[in-house]
Protein backbone atom coordinates (compact mmCIF):
# COMPACT_ATOMS: atom_id res chain seq x y z
CA UNK A 1 0.00 0.00 0.00
CA UNK A 2 1.31 3.47 -0.92
CA UNK A 3 -0.49 6.73 -0.12
CA UNK A 4 -1.03 9.06 -3.08
CA UNK A 5 -1.97 12.73 -2.68
CA UNK A 6 -4.63 14.72 -4.59
CA UNK A 7 -2.02 15.61 -7.22
CA UNK A 8 -1.16 11.99 -7.97
CA UNK A 9 2.13 12.12 -6.08
CA UNK A 10 2.93 8.90 -4.17
CA UNK A 11 4.44 9.51 -0.72
CA UNK A 12 7.39 7.19 -0.21
CA UNK A 13 9.81 9.27 1.78
CA UNK A 14 9.76 10.61 5.36
CA UNK A 15 12.09 13.38 6.53
CA UNK A 16 12.33 13.38 10.28
CA UNK A 17 13.68 16.39 12.11
CA UNK A 18 15.04 15.03 15.38
CA UNK A 19 15.72 18.39 17.00
CA UNK A 20 15.56 22.05 16.06
CA UNK A 21 18.79 22.64 17.97
CA UNK A 22 22.13 22.88 16.24
CA UNK A 23 25.72 23.35 17.34
CA UNK A 24 26.28 25.75 14.42
CA UNK A 25 24.47 28.96 13.50
CA UNK A 26 24.40 29.27 9.71
CA UNK A 27 22.85 32.59 8.91
CA UNK A 28 20.66 31.16 6.14
CA UNK A 29 19.34 28.13 8.07
CA UNK A 30 15.73 27.16 7.22
CA UNK A 31 15.44 24.68 10.11
CA UNK A 32 13.44 22.33 7.90
CA UNK A 33 10.61 24.86 7.87
CA UNK A 34 9.79 24.58 11.56
CA UNK A 35 9.93 26.76 14.64
CA UNK A 36 12.03 26.01 17.70
CA UNK A 37 11.01 22.91 19.61
CA UNK A 38 8.82 23.10 22.65
CA UNK A 39 9.09 19.33 22.94
CA UNK A 40 11.01 16.48 21.31
CA UNK A 41 9.97 12.96 20.42
CA UNK A 42 11.37 9.99 22.30
CA UNK A 43 13.13 7.14 20.44
CA UNK A 44 10.09 4.92 21.12
CA UNK A 45 7.71 7.48 19.60
CA UNK A 46 9.91 7.91 16.55
CA UNK A 47 10.10 4.14 16.11
CA UNK A 48 6.31 3.86 16.30
CA UNK A 49 5.77 6.58 13.69
CA UNK A 50 8.33 5.00 11.34
CA UNK A 51 6.68 1.59 11.80
CA UNK A 52 3.29 3.08 10.86
CA UNK A 53 4.86 4.91 7.91
CA UNK A 54 6.43 1.67 6.67
CA UNK A 55 3.00 0.01 6.68
CA UNK A 56 1.92 2.80 4.34
CA UNK A 57 4.75 2.16 1.89
CA UNK A 58 7.18 4.79 3.18
CA UNK A 59 10.52 3.02 3.03
CA UNK A 60 12.98 5.90 2.73
CA UNK A 61 13.75 7.88 5.85
CA UNK A 62 16.04 10.90 6.16
CA UNK A 63 17.07 12.13 9.60
CA UNK A 64 17.61 15.86 9.81
CA UNK A 65 17.62 18.67 12.36
CA UNK A 66 18.79 21.23 13.38
CA UNK A 67 21.70 18.90 13.76
CA UNK A 68 20.45 15.34 14.32
CA UNK A 69 23.66 14.07 15.89
CA UNK A 70 23.51 16.42 18.87
CA UNK A 71 20.81 14.17 20.29
CA UNK A 72 22.44 11.94 22.87
CA UNK A 73 20.20 9.04 21.78
CA UNK A 74 20.94 9.34 18.05
CA UNK A 75 22.52 5.86 17.79
CA UNK A 76 19.55 4.29 19.57
CA UNK A 77 17.12 6.09 17.23
CA UNK A 78 18.95 4.75 14.17
CA UNK A 79 19.01 1.24 15.62
CA UNK A 80 15.30 1.31 16.44
CA UNK A 81 14.07 2.47 13.04
CA UNK A 82 16.51 0.47 10.91
CA UNK A 83 14.27 -2.62 10.62
CA UNK A 84 11.42 -0.68 8.99
CA UNK A 85 13.41 1.22 6.39
CA UNK A 86 15.05 0.36 3.06
CA UNK A 87 17.09 3.56 2.70
CA UNK A 88 18.09 5.24 5.96
CA UNK A 89 20.09 8.42 5.56
CA UNK A 90 21.03 11.52 7.51
CA UNK A 91 21.78 15.13 6.70
CA UNK A 92 24.37 16.52 9.08
CA UNK A 93 26.80 19.40 9.38
CA UNK A 94 29.62 16.87 9.85
CA UNK A 95 30.98 18.30 13.10
CA UNK A 96 30.40 15.04 14.97
CA UNK A 97 31.15 12.57 12.18
CA UNK A 98 34.69 11.88 13.32
CA UNK A 99 33.42 10.12 16.42
CA UNK A 100 29.88 9.16 15.42
CA UNK A 101 30.27 7.80 11.88
CA UNK A 102 31.30 4.37 13.14
CA UNK A 103 28.58 3.83 15.76
CA UNK A 104 25.97 5.16 13.31
CA UNK A 105 27.17 2.76 10.63
CA UNK A 106 27.02 -0.12 13.11
CA UNK A 107 23.49 0.89 14.11
CA UNK A 108 22.43 0.62 10.46
CA UNK A 109 22.66 4.06 8.87
CA UNK A 110 23.09 3.67 5.09
CA UNK A 111 24.42 7.03 4.01
CA UNK A 112 25.04 10.67 4.94
CA UNK A 113 24.79 14.10 3.34
CA UNK A 114 27.20 16.62 4.86
CA UNK A 115 26.92 20.40 4.58
CA UNK A 116 30.07 22.02 3.24
CA UNK A 117 29.67 25.48 1.76
CA UNK A 118 33.33 26.41 1.62
CA UNK A 119 36.84 25.06 1.93
CA UNK A 120 38.07 28.36 3.36
CA UNK A 121 38.36 28.38 7.12
CA UNK A 122 37.59 32.08 7.55
CA UNK A 123 34.55 31.91 5.32
CA UNK A 124 33.34 28.78 7.09
CA UNK A 125 33.38 30.69 10.34
CA UNK A 126 31.62 33.63 8.72
CA UNK A 127 28.82 31.38 7.45
CA UNK A 128 28.36 29.05 10.42
CA UNK A 129 29.59 31.20 13.31
CA UNK A 130 32.16 28.59 14.38
CA UNK A 131 35.79 27.92 13.47
CA UNK A 132 35.36 24.18 12.99
CA UNK A 133 36.22 23.54 9.34
CA UNK A 134 39.20 21.22 10.12
CA UNK A 135 36.95 19.12 12.36
CA UNK A 136 34.30 18.89 9.64
CA UNK A 137 36.85 17.90 6.99
CA UNK A 138 38.09 15.11 9.28
CA UNK A 139 34.48 14.04 9.73
CA UNK A 140 34.01 13.94 5.96
CA UNK A 141 37.12 11.75 5.57
CA UNK A 142 35.78 9.35 8.16
CA UNK A 143 32.29 9.27 6.63
CA UNK A 144 33.70 8.57 3.17
CA UNK A 145 35.49 5.49 4.52
CA UNK A 146 32.25 4.07 5.90
CA UNK A 147 29.31 5.27 3.80
CA UNK A 148 28.51 5.18 0.14
CA UNK A 149 27.55 7.54 -1.31
CA UNK A 150 28.50 10.57 0.75
CA UNK A 151 26.96 13.75 -0.60
CA UNK A 152 28.38 17.19 0.13
CA UNK A 153 25.80 19.97 0.24
CA UNK A 154 26.99 23.37 -0.92
CA UNK A 155 24.51 26.23 -0.77
CA UNK A 156 25.79 28.63 -3.39
CA UNK A 157 25.71 32.28 -2.28
CA UNK A 158 26.57 35.24 -4.48
CA UNK A 159 29.71 37.04 -3.42
CA UNK A 160 30.35 34.59 -0.62
CA UNK A 161 31.25 31.20 -2.08
CA UNK A 162 30.30 31.32 -5.78
CA UNK A 163 34.03 31.62 -6.57
CA UNK A 164 34.63 28.22 -4.97
CA UNK A 165 32.33 26.08 -7.08
CA UNK A 166 35.14 24.60 -9.19
CA UNK A 167 37.33 24.01 -6.14
CA UNK A 168 34.45 22.12 -4.59
CA UNK A 169 33.94 20.09 -7.76
CA UNK A 170 37.62 19.10 -7.68
CA UNK A 171 37.46 18.33 -3.95
CA UNK A 172 34.40 16.12 -4.43
CA UNK A 173 36.06 14.27 -7.33
CA UNK A 174 39.19 13.74 -5.25
CA UNK A 175 37.19 12.40 -2.31
CA UNK A 176 34.80 10.36 -4.48
CA UNK A 177 31.84 12.17 -2.95
CA UNK A 178 28.80 13.56 -4.76
CA UNK A 179 28.58 17.35 -4.74
CA UNK A 180 25.09 18.84 -4.44
CA UNK A 181 25.01 22.46 -5.53
CA UNK A 182 21.99 24.03 -3.91
CA UNK A 183 20.37 27.21 -5.11
CA UNK A 184 19.07 29.37 -2.26
CA UNK A 185 15.41 28.72 -1.73
CA UNK A 186 13.01 30.89 0.24
CA UNK A 187 9.22 30.96 0.60
CA UNK A 188 7.47 33.31 -1.85
CA UNK A 189 7.01 36.06 0.73
CA UNK A 190 10.79 36.27 1.17
CA UNK A 191 11.67 36.80 -2.47
CA UNK A 192 11.98 40.53 -1.75
CA UNK A 193 14.02 40.09 1.40
CA UNK A 194 17.52 41.59 1.71
CA UNK A 195 18.92 38.09 2.17
CA UNK A 196 17.51 36.77 -1.06
CA UNK A 197 18.44 39.88 -3.03
CA UNK A 198 21.99 39.88 -1.70
CA UNK A 199 22.88 36.20 -1.93
CA UNK A 200 20.70 34.55 -4.57
CA UNK A 201 22.98 33.01 -7.16
CA UNK A 202 21.12 31.47 -10.10
CA UNK A 203 22.50 28.06 -11.03
CA UNK A 204 20.91 27.89 -14.48
CA UNK A 205 23.89 29.40 -16.37
CA UNK A 206 26.20 26.98 -14.58
CA UNK A 207 23.99 24.08 -15.59
CA UNK A 208 24.32 25.20 -19.21
CA UNK A 209 28.10 25.05 -18.81
CA UNK A 210 27.83 21.59 -17.18
CA UNK A 211 25.77 20.42 -20.16
CA UNK A 212 28.70 21.20 -22.44
CA UNK A 213 31.28 19.56 -20.20
CA UNK A 214 29.50 16.51 -18.87
CA UNK A 215 30.27 13.05 -20.22
CA UNK A 216 26.92 11.87 -18.89
CA UNK A 217 23.77 13.53 -17.51
CA UNK A 218 21.12 11.80 -15.44
CA UNK A 219 17.84 13.22 -14.23
CA UNK A 220 16.13 12.34 -10.95
CA UNK A 221 12.35 12.42 -10.84
CA UNK A 222 12.43 14.12 -7.44
CA UNK A 223 12.81 17.87 -7.99
CA UNK A 224 13.74 17.11 -11.63
CA UNK A 225 17.30 17.28 -10.32
CA UNK A 226 20.02 16.75 -12.87
CA UNK A 227 23.24 15.00 -12.10
CA UNK A 228 26.25 15.85 -14.26
CA UNK A 229 29.31 13.64 -14.62
CA UNK A 230 32.11 16.14 -15.17
CA UNK A 231 35.72 15.18 -15.98
CA UNK A 232 38.35 16.75 -13.69
CA UNK A 233 42.04 16.13 -13.09
CA UNK A 234 40.98 13.90 -10.17
CA UNK A 235 38.58 11.77 -12.19
CA UNK A 236 34.87 12.17 -12.85
CA UNK A 237 33.00 14.48 -10.46
CA UNK A 238 29.33 13.73 -9.81
CA UNK A 239 27.49 17.02 -9.42
CA UNK A 240 23.78 17.20 -8.61
CA UNK A 241 22.00 20.54 -8.95
CA UNK A 242 19.10 21.42 -6.63
CA UNK A 243 17.28 24.33 -8.22
CA UNK A 244 13.83 24.96 -6.86
CA UNK A 245 12.60 28.46 -7.52
CA UNK A 246 11.18 29.28 -10.92
CA UNK A 247 11.41 25.56 -11.69
CA UNK A 248 7.82 24.59 -12.36
CA UNK A 249 8.50 20.88 -12.25
CA UNK A 250 10.39 20.96 -8.95
CA UNK A 251 7.40 19.94 -6.84
CA UNK A 252 5.63 17.82 -9.44
CA UNK A 253 7.24 14.60 -8.22
CA UNK A 254 7.79 15.52 -4.58
CA UNK A 255 7.43 12.27 -2.67
CA UNK A 256 8.33 13.64 0.79
CA UNK A 257 6.37 14.14 3.92
CA UNK A 258 8.00 15.59 7.01
CA UNK A 259 7.88 14.91 10.70
CA UNK A 260 8.92 17.90 12.79
CA UNK A 261 10.99 17.49 15.93
CA UNK A 262 7.90 18.53 17.90
CA UNK A 263 6.01 15.50 16.58
CA UNK A 264 3.87 17.04 13.84
CA UNK A 265 3.48 15.71 10.33
CA UNK A 266 4.25 18.54 7.91
CA UNK A 267 3.24 18.45 4.28
CA UNK A 268 5.83 20.76 2.70
CA UNK A 269 9.11 22.45 3.63
CA UNK A 270 7.95 25.89 2.55
CA UNK A 271 4.30 25.93 3.59
CA UNK A 272 3.00 27.50 6.78
CA UNK A 273 0.05 26.22 8.82
CA UNK A 274 0.33 22.66 7.57
CA UNK A 275 1.12 20.83 10.82
CA UNK A 276 -0.77 17.80 12.09
CA UNK A 277 0.05 16.63 15.59
CA UNK A 278 0.84 12.92 15.74
CA UNK A 279 2.75 12.69 19.01
CA UNK A 280 -0.05 13.93 21.26
CA UNK A 281 -2.36 11.12 20.04
CA UNK A 282 0.50 8.65 20.65
CA UNK A 283 0.86 10.00 24.18
CA UNK A 284 -2.89 9.56 24.58
CA UNK A 285 -2.67 5.87 23.61
CA UNK A 286 -3.95 6.12 20.02
CA UNK A 287 -4.24 2.82 18.15
CA UNK A 288 -2.25 2.05 14.98
CA UNK A 289 -5.45 2.55 12.95
CA UNK A 290 -5.87 6.05 14.38
CA UNK A 291 -2.27 6.91 13.52
CA UNK A 292 -2.76 5.61 9.99
CA UNK A 293 -5.73 7.98 9.65
CA UNK A 294 -3.51 10.88 10.75
CA UNK A 295 -1.01 10.02 8.00
CA UNK A 296 -3.82 9.82 5.44
CA UNK A 297 -5.12 13.23 6.51
CA UNK A 298 -1.65 14.76 6.14
CA UNK A 299 -1.19 13.24 2.68
CA UNK A 300 -4.54 14.66 1.56
CA UNK A 301 -3.39 18.13 2.65
CA UNK A 302 -0.33 17.98 0.42
CA UNK A 303 0.00 20.28 -2.54
CA UNK A 304 2.90 21.34 -4.78
CA UNK A 305 4.43 24.64 -3.59
CA UNK A 306 5.92 25.79 -6.90
CA UNK A 307 3.30 25.37 -9.64
N1 LIG B 1 11.86 22.50 -1.45
C1 LIG B 1 12.45 21.42 -0.99
N2 LIG B 1 13.76 21.37 -0.92
C2 LIG B 1 14.30 20.25 -0.46
C3 LIG B 1 13.54 19.15 -0.05
N3 LIG B 1 14.39 18.17 0.35
C4 LIG B 1 15.61 18.66 0.21
N4 LIG B 1 15.58 19.91 -0.28
C5 LIG B 1 16.70 20.78 -0.64
O1 LIG B 1 17.79 19.93 -0.90
C6 LIG B 1 18.87 20.27 -0.06
C7 LIG B 1 19.63 19.00 0.30
O2 LIG B 1 18.82 18.17 1.06
P1 LIG B 1 19.33 16.93 1.83
O3 LIG B 1 18.76 16.95 3.20
O4 LIG B 1 20.80 16.77 1.74
O5 LIG B 1 18.61 15.73 1.12
P2 LIG B 1 18.40 15.34 -0.39
O6 LIG B 1 19.62 15.57 -1.19
O7 LIG B 1 17.18 16.04 -0.88
O8 LIG B 1 18.06 13.80 -0.24
P3 LIG B 1 18.73 12.49 -0.85
O9 LIG B 1 18.87 12.71 -2.31
O10 LIG B 1 17.79 11.40 -0.50
O11 LIG B 1 20.04 12.31 -0.15
C8 LIG B 1 18.21 20.96 1.12
O12 LIG B 1 19.05 21.90 1.72
C9 LIG B 1 17.06 21.69 0.47
O13 LIG B 1 17.49 22.88 -0.08
C10 LIG B 1 12.15 19.24 -0.15
O14 LIG B 1 11.41 18.31 0.15
N5 LIG B 1 11.67 20.41 -0.62
S1 LIG C 1 24.35 23.26 10.22
FE1 LIG C 1 22.36 22.99 9.24
S2 LIG C 1 20.88 22.99 10.94
FE2 LIG C 1 22.81 23.84 11.72
S3 LIG C 1 22.58 26.04 11.52
FE3 LIG C 1 23.64 25.30 9.69
S4 LIG C 1 22.00 24.94 8.16
FE4 LIG C 1 21.05 25.10 10.20
S1 LIG D 1 6.09 20.43 -2.45
FE1 LIG D 1 7.90 21.39 -3.33
S2 LIG D 1 8.60 22.91 -1.84
FE2 LIG D 1 7.17 21.52 -0.80
S3 LIG D 1 8.45 19.95 0.12
FE3 LIG D 1 7.86 19.17 -1.87
S4 LIG D 1 9.47 19.79 -3.29
FE4 LIG D 1 9.70 21.01 -1.40
Automatic annotation (TrEMBL):
Classification via PANTHER family: MOLYBDENUM COFACTOR BIOSYNTHESIS PROTEIN 1, MOLYBDOPTERIN COFACTOR SYNTHESIS PROTEIN A
Residues that, per the record, bind [4Fe-4S] cluster 2: 251, 254, 268
EC category name: lyase
Pathway noted in the entry: Cofactor biosynthesis; molybdopterin biosynthesis
Stored CDD domains: Radical_SAM, Twitch_MoaA
Keywords annotated in UniProt: 4Fe-4S, GTP-binding, Iron, Iron-sulfur, Lyase, Metal-binding, Molybdenum cofactor biosynthesis, Nucleotide-binding, S-adenosyl-L-methionine
Pfam families: Mob_synth_C (PF06463), Radical_SAM (PF04055)
Cited PROSITE patterns: RADICAL_SAM
Enzyme Commission code: 4.1.99.22
Binding site for S-adenosyl-L-methionine: 28, 66, 115, 190
Positions of [4Fe-4S] cluster 1 binding: 22, 26, 29
Entry function: Catalyzes the cyclization of GTP to (8S)-3',8-cyclo-7,8-dihydroguanosine 5'-triphosphate.
Organism in which the protein naturally occurs: Thermococcus aggregans
Protein name from the UniProt record: Probable GTP 3',8-cyclase
UniProt-recorded Gene Ontology molecular function terms: 4 iron, 4 sulfur cluster binding; cyclic pyranopterin monophosphate synthase activity; GTP 3',8'-cyclase activity; GTP binding; metal ion binding; S-adenosyl-L-methionine binding
Similarity comment: Belongs to the radical SAM superfamily. MoaA family.
Free-text comment on the cofactor: Binds 2 [4Fe-4S] clusters. Binds 1 [4Fe-4S] cluster coordinated with 3 cysteines and an exchangeable S-adenosyl-L-methionine and 1 [4Fe-4S] cluster coordinated with 3 cysteines and the GTP-derived substrate.
Span of domain Radical SAM core: 6-233
Chemical reaction(s) catalysed: GTP + AH2 + S-adenosyl-L-methionine = (8S)-3',8-cyclo-7,8-dihydroguanosine 5'-triphosphate + 5'-deoxyadenosine + L-methionine + A + H(+)
Binding site for GTP: 15, 62, 91, 151, 256-258
Source organism, top-level taxon: Archaea
Cofactor(s) needed for function: [4Fe-4S] cluster
InterPro entries: Aldolase_TIM, Elp3/MiaA/NifB-like_rSAM, MoaA, MoaA-like, MoaA_arc, MoaA_twitch, MoCo_biosynth_MoaA/MoaC, rSAM
Record-level GO BP terms: Mo-molybdopterin cofactor biosynthetic process
Amino acid sequence: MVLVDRFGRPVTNLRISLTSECNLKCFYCHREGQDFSFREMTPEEIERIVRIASKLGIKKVKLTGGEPTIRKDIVEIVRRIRPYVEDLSMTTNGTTMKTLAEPLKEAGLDRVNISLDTLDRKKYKEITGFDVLPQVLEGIEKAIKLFHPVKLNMVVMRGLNDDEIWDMINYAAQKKAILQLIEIEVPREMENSWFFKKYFYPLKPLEEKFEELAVEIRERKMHRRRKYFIPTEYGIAEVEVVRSMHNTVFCANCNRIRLTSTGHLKTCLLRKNDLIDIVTPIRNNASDEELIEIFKKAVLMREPYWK
